[in-house]
Structure to design on (364 residues):
């Protein structure tokens, strides 16, 4: 029984540390503040802002409730163990051991959220995938990565919007832009930012020769417009064109697709999945603003010399992760050194172990 009590005491100590790290008390105050806003008579006068307030309040409520529930369970189990210490039976000891082990497991899952300490970890994210060197194989690889992230989002119950997709002529995709929304989306997906390398026997080669393919994944947080980035009319060029599907055929009879070129930075953004030109234009501006915000943040970090040496930018040159699909199959992250032989599970969206390993790597 002493061992159980010691384990519970350790859990309680860890709990208090994590609660302080996550500022749970301030989150309780924030939720109360949001609830007060929601009770105001004119709350729904701005529907878009009201939805955001409601969403934030629900996310905070869920997080607060989870920590309160496990804190109460630890307290109750400690009280049971203290009473049982006076007259412990084998059955009661086994029951308390089982309950304590379940508490440890539940706590470890919640403890994972303490790793989301980045400025924008709670934000939604724009995810762009670009096929690199490797021809048709690379385009197929880009589509495999797209499916991997769609499956991950499905597992986490995240919402996905496909903003733009350019198909390959023979197979796969040349690029795709996604908007993924939900709790801590950027916190999860920032680990995917960089070059992904695939090594396999090519299904597009009659001899099945071994092929190395690359794809670039860019993950950018969706940041609320706070006026930091100003997009001047004279700095952009807007083109409209017809949306295209696989093989390049037109899928719309009107010029609904939109391409925005930001001339000073050279950033180009396209959106073509909506039937409305206005909606495509709005989505394109969201991505452009996010990319300019990201560039501004990186410039500030560089100036303040706060960039960590182990964190790689999403650019060509060095892969962050390799996927070996021949011989002894393996997926290995080159930053955290985490690896697994279950390639199929990873490609089916089982990415949390890689994400946790990366977040722990950032803490070193």
């Amino acid at each position: 029984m002493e061992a159980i009590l010691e384990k519970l005491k350790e859990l309680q100590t860890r709990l208090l540390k994590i609660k302080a790290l996550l500022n749970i008390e301030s989150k309780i105050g924030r939720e109360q503040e949001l609830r007060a806003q929601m009770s105001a008579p004119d709350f729904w006068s701005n529907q878009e802002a009201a939805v955001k307030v409601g969403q934030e309040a629900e996310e905070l409520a869920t997080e607060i409730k989870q920590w309160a529930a496990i804190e109460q369970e630890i307290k109750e189990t400690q009280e049971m163990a203290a009473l049982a210490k006076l007259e412990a039976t084998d059955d009661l000891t086994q029951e308390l051991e089982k309950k304590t082990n379940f508490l440890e497991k539940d706590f470890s899952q919640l403890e994972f959220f303490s790793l989301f300490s980045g400025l924008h970890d709670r934000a939604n994210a724009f995810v762009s995938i670009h096929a690199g060197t490797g021809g048709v194989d690379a385009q197929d690889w880009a589509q495999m990565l797209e499916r991997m992230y769609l499956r991950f989002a499905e597992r986490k119950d995240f919402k996905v919007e496909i903003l733009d997709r350019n198909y390959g002529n023979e197979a796969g995709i040349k690029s795709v832009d996604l908007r993924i929304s939900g709790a801590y989306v950027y916190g999860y997906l920032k680990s995917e930012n960089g070059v992904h390398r695939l090594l396999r026997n090519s299904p597009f080669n009659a001899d099945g020769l071994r092929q190395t393919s690359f794809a670039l994944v860019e993950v950018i947080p969706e940041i609320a417009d706070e006026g930091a980035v100003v997009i001047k009319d004279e700095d952009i060029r807007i083109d409209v064109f017809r949306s295209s599907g696989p093989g390049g055929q037109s899928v719309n009879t009107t010029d609904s697709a939109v391409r925005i070129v930001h001339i000073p930075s050279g950033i180009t953004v396209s959106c073509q999945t909506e039937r409305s030109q206005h909606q495509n234009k709005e989505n394109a501006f969201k991505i452009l603003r996010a990319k300019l915000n990201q560039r501004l943040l990186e410039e500030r970090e560089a100036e303040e010399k706060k960039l960590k040496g182990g964190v790689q930018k999403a650019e060509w040159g060095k892969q962050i992760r390799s996927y070996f699909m021949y011989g002894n199959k393996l997926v290995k992250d080159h930053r955290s050194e985490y690896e697994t032989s279950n390639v199929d599970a990873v490609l089916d969206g089982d990415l949390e172990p890689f994400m946790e390993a990366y977040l722990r790597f950032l803490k070193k």
Q: What stands out?
A: The chain has three domains: 2-115, 125-226+312-363, 233-304. The CA atoms of residues 101 and 263 lie 58 Å apart. The domain at 233-304 is CATH 3.30.160.20 (Double Stranded RNA Binding Domain). The two ends are 36 Å apart (CA to CA).
